[in-house]
């Protein structure tokens, strides 16, 4: 029996004229009629490219030389750009990055949803460097290099990028990646630590500012525990250990570590646990909440339903404005924290329920309550399952916050073409500058 063989890759550099930018930030060219996605290339450029993968319907390549540069090309700030997979757009002017993301959103709405927004919202932006307050570094002991690497995955995800620093991560973490690598290299368990997560809240007398969570596959020795605690003390990090699943996470130093961040515009403080989901970009998050409320316009007489509510990032500040808010979330731990946060902030008009919103919820008590307005902030898969269940006629207004323009476009098509809503406005929010990630927001009103 013949063995299947991968298509042969021709490494000979070839010229390519870049026609467009793909949704994942690569240049799009055509070669002998076949689409080629070229990393590191921008629309309008002519480059020399080297093939990296061959597929039936398209090929992949990387830029080896820019023959004719786009006027939108800028020098990447990070020396690891092009190798590290954390960013793909550092070579593109920031205003053009936003324009490209807006193009992706509007094109998806038209192509997938067969809808168009009556108005395009001005893009929301905030700090473009040092913004990432939550993330996960991969860790790998590389015997050939005789050292430990800590960083994001390379563009080839089989490898860990050899980072010295990261300019998109908050500086307290981004400037200490090399120190983290030296720390892990010094541990007896260096081969048994596959990842380090980081998360940052606000530093106050009551709360730790930044936490590092070390995943370890074997029990740690006493000397390793001491080394980790001393690293935390030296750099003012709270250190957590994760020997198993999410529930195994526990504080090493200090013992009473707690995390929280404030939303001062609404006098809200949100406490969270080290592996909880929080929005990555703190400044953009506050602007996103404000825009959401501008569009949804919650009033003192309104009852608002907030689906996929998480910790209550929208629910709790909205309870300062609306008569009553009901948040529903699939992860029971987040719901428990949301309830605790409601109590901590003295909000008796915010209720929370745990429910899998991909399953039939038509018998759930919260589903049968009457509401005036709806807020959706679903995962990448979107909200189509729950939208098909909801008695939508009760909602005069729906605001949809999306982390994936394709699923937003699909759901917008349902709301506009089947459920009797108009897409009044839509726009992008740059939650992840220098990446191809597109965060967006849309307002629907009942026709």
Please tag this protein with its features.
447 residues, alpha/beta, eight-stranded mixed beta sheet
Q: What does this molecule look like?
A:
The chain has 447 residues and is an alpha/beta fold. The protein is 21% helix and 28% strand. It is built from nine helices and 22 strands. The chain has an eight-stranded mixed sheet with strand order 7-21-22-20-19-16-17-18, with helices on both faces. α1 crosses α9. The longest helix has 18 residues. The chain is globular. The N terminus is likely disordered.
| Largest sheet properties | 8 strands, mixed
Uncertain segments: 1-5
Order of strands in the sheet with most strands: 7-21-22-20-19-16-17-18
Mean pLDDT: 95
Strand content: 25-35%
Overall helicity: 10-25%
Number of H/I helices: 9
What is the rounded Rg?
24 Å
Overall 3D form: globular
N- to C-terminal separation? 63 Å
The class by helix and strand makeup works out as alpha/beta
Give the total of beta strands.
22
Q: Helices, strands, pairings?
A:
Layout (H helix, E strand, L loop, with lengths): L13 E4 L2 E2 L5 E5 L2 E6 L6 E9 L3 E11 L25 H18 L7 E2 L13 E9 L4 E5 L19 H4 L2 H10 L8 E6 L9 E6 L6 H14 L2 E5 L7 E4 L5 E5 L4 E5 L9 H15 L6 E5 L7 H4 L5 E6 L2 H13 L5 E5 L18 E4 L7 H4 L9 E6 L2 H13 L3 E9 L9 E8 L1
Parallel strand pairs: 4-6, 7-21, 11-12, 16-17, 16-19, 17-18, 19-20
Antiparallel strand pairs: 1-5, 2-3, 3-4, 5-6, 8-9, 8-10, 10-11, 12-13, 14-15, 20-22, 21-22
Helix pairs in contact: 1-9
């Amino acid at each position: 029996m013949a063995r299947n063989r991968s298509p042969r890759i021709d490494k000979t550099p070839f010229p390519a004229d870049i026609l467009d930018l793909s949704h994942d930030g690569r240049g799009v060219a055509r070669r002998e009629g076949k689409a080629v996605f070229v990393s590191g290339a921008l629309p309008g450029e002519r480059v020399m490219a080297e093939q990296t993968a061959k597929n039936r319907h398209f090929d992949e390549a990387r830029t080896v030389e820019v023959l004719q540069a786009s006027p939108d090309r800028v020098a990447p700030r990070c020396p690891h750009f092009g190798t590290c997979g954390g960013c793909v757009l550092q070579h593109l002017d920031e205003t053009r990055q936003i324009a490209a993301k807006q193009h992706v959103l509007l094109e998806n709405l038209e192509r997938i949803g067969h809808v168009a927004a009556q108005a395009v919202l001005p893009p929301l932006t905030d700090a473009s460097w040092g913004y990432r307050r939550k993330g996960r570094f991969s860790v790998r002991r590389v015997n050939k290099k005789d050292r430990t690497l800590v960083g994001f995955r390379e563009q080839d995800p089989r490898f860990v990028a050899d980072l010295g620093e990261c300019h998109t991560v908050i500086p307290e973490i981004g400037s200490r990646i090399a120190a983290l690598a030296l720390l892990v290299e010094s541990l007896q368990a260096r081969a048994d630590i596959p990842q380090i997560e980081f998360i940052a809240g606000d530093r106050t007398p009551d709360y730790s500012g930044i936490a590092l969570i070390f995943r370890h596959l074997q029990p740690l020795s006493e000397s390793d525990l001491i080394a980790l605690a001393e690293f935390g003390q030296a750099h003012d990090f709270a250190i957590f250990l994760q020997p198993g699943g999410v529930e195994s996470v526990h504080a090493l130093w200090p013992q009473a570590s707690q995390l929280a961040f404030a939303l001062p515009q609404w006098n809200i403080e949100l406490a969270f646990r080290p592996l909880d989901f929080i929005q990555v970009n703190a400044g953009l998050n506050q602007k996103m909440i404000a825009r959401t409320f501008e569009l949804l316009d919650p009033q003192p007489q309104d009852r608002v339903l907030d689906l996929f509510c998480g910790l209550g990032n929208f629910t709790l500040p909205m309870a300062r404005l609306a008569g009553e808010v009901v948040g529903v979330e699939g992860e029971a731990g987040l719901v428990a924290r949301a309830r605790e946060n409601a109590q901590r902030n003295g909000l008796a008009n915010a209720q929370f329920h745990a429910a899998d919103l991909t399953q039939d919820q038509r018998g759930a008590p919260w589903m049968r309550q009457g509401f005036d307005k709806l807020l959706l902030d679903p995962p990448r898969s979107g909200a189509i399952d729950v939208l098909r269940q909801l008695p939508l006629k009760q909602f005069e207004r729906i605001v949809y916050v999306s982390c994936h323009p394709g699923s937003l476009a699909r759901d917008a098509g349902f709301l506009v073409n089947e459920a009797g809503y108009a897409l009044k406005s839509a726009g992008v929010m740059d939650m992840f500058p220098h990446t191809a990630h597109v965060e967006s927001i849309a307002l629907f009103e009942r026709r």
